[in-house]
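Support case: pyridoxal-5'-phosphate complex. Customer-provided input:
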Amino acid sequence: MPDPLDDSPAAALAALRQVMEAAERYLPSVPTRSALPSSRAAASRLDLPDGEGAGAEAAIGELIEAALAGATTSTGPRYLDFVVGGATPAAMAADWLTAVLDQNAAGPGSAPWATELEATVLRRLAAMFGLPPSWSGVLVNSSMLASFTGLACATQRWGERHGVDVAEQGLAAAPPLPVFASDLVHPTVGKALQMLGHGRRCLTICPGVGGRVDLARLEQGLRRHGGGVVVATAGDAGTGRFDPLAEIAELVDRHGGWLHVDGAFGLYAALSERSRYLLDGLARADSVAADAHKWMNVPYESGFCLLREPALLEAAFGMPPAPYLPPAENGFRGFSVLGPESSRRARSLPLWASIAAYGPDGLARMVNRHLDAAAHLAARVRREPELELILEPVSCVVCFRWVGAGPDDVSLNEQNRRLAEAVAKDGAFALGMTSVDGKLALRAALCNWRIGPAELDEMLDRVLLVSRRLGRSAA
Ligand SMILES: *Cc1c(COP(=O)(O)O)cnc(C)c1O
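Agent response - structure generated as follows:
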């Protein structure tokens, strides 16, 4: 029995049915379930055999019990820590279908249907964000890899300007690449630069008011280096703030260079008329990175990079064909030569299902719901004398701190650090922490499709309860 060769098609269906039954138990509990599991040790208790296996039914049964006990409820409306969406029903089911079909979306040779669907989804994503039809790109697992993709193309272009084919000759043949960003830049951009061989030190921060880029310093830098790459952050994970894209694009146009926009979650603000202004100038960028597993509520791993000149992708990521690989179809060799991955999951299915099921209008309504939720939470924080709103929310992130004790920022920081720990230990809600102008604050990222004002009121009640308990135990 514990030999995959002996497993009949019925065994696969039985195993999927086990998962379906687990989902029937789990999913109804998601809206009210604690964000964090009570048991952290569940995974380490799971053992793996040395010799014979237990068979699919026993293995899946054991995995389900451990997973339900140990997983964070990050798809639920009480999980407000990392900027994560939940999986909407259509996207979740399509992700399941992706596993059933298990396509290798490397290209038309391995999976023609999934490859075509990916091209369709990329065209639609570009259109949804107001980018011209000549834009295209590639699906990747995350915003980190999406920024890696955009910055690899920027590197290729930088090399071309200096007579170097970086893909062929390497970086050493070209002058060092200057990269500029604001304090809002995400650490994964530095990671992408280090992976590309530029080293994190190539990044110059131009600190300005409110974390946004200082345009005068940026212009100085671009002028001194005769151009370069500018990474603009459209929605920073810590506070939800945006760099001014149109003003940055103006400078990049004037001095030459490449504008990469990291819109991991913030790109979706373009879907709503209320927040679209935050992305004014987006279409003047050269590359845009985003995640669908954040504000679009598609399951992990769902990032994408869109580019003004998609032809650069093959210049940066192409590789000579292996003898066993099929020839290109009309010059199109597939996404394995248009991005960092070779064999790849068919990520287009959940994206397609999400857009097909909810439409740009439905997704825009979801964004509006979260803008309303952020305004609701901010208003409630303002009314609570023990709390302080650290920033007016501009998108779906709200930062606040407890000011019920301590006369100065130093002791307030310590109090808020302890409060964050106590909230995490309580586990009902997951909140993040961030630091704004030296003030440690609690951070709620509101982008799960189920989040409404009720959860947020409950969350604040809980935070106040935990903080009063802390105050009492300290006294
Ligand atoms: C989340 C986030 C990232 C990283 O996204 P991954 O999907 O974890 O790679 C990058 N930039 C911003 C602004 C983010 O919010």
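The chain has a mean pLDDT of 94.

Case will auto-close in a few days if no follow-up is received.
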